[in-house]
Amino acid sequence: MRLLTAELERFRCRPVLGLVAGLLLLASAGFVAMAWSSTTPATAAEISAGTQDYEAAKVRWSELNAQYVEQCRARQADGQGGDSDCEPPYDSDDAPGLDSFLPAPPYFPAEVGNATTGLRLPVLLAAFAMGVSFVTAEFGARTMGTWLTFAPRRSRVFATKSAAAALGALPAAVAALGLAIGGIALVFLVRGAAIEGEGAWSAPLGDAAHLLPAVLAAALLGAGLAFAVRHAAAVTGIVVWWALAVEFTLPQVAPRLAPATFGLNLRAWFEGSARYAVTECGPDPDLAGAVGCHDVDRSIGASQGGLFLLLATVAVLALGAVVFRRRAVT
Fold it and tell me: Do residues 156 and 2 lie in contact, with contact meaning Cβ atoms separated by under 8 Å?
């Protein structure tokens, strides 16, 4: 426990990690600013223009009804209309109201949902970067060997440093989500807009409940890769290669292997399910001897997405632990 406490203190004292957290909070503030802009009350000019459009629409509505009745009676006079009543086809109850011509009022679930969804990638990248930076800085400054003289058991150093990376990234993620959700709620209060709607609070809290475990996984993945290759540049190269070769190219070349990508599994974890399409070919029932191909939608669930993230994290941590234990530290 003392070793973990020391690692957490070292994490807190690293300026670059504070910079990453600050950039993350800046992204959250951006969503709050967007909410402030989108909740601006309608101006007098907008209300006037909307009212004019509404009055013009009512006139047009009445003209269409009158035109229909006139044409109907003309057909009846010519003996073509039958015995049908020439009632106006457009009921006044179906006519659009004034609200349809004015700017839509702000909707809290939509605003906060956009924020929590938009913060997913920045938060995960920040957690990953924190895990990488916290470990590679030790190897880059050649202080890992000195640290091992005080804590000679490499397994303990690996475990506590990885745990410190994950636990250290968590407050930044919580602060970013809290700033976004709380800031948007404050904007609605200041604007006098209603904080209501389906899932007004349950939806963002549910997003946070799914995002925070993913943050832990991202930080641990970063720490595990850093222990394995020991250089931030090498980790960056691996991430770029994976993004191009696996995340982007693999689903195009082999769609059946799409469930092996982080993107699909993260989407399933956050949204409850994720779809992908595969091409299946077989005998064409309409043409004898012919082969027909068509796309078939498949999906993975949140449990499969979460299991993939868990197994990937464990595998990378195991690789980092083996390399750290067997490779010399200078």
Answer: no
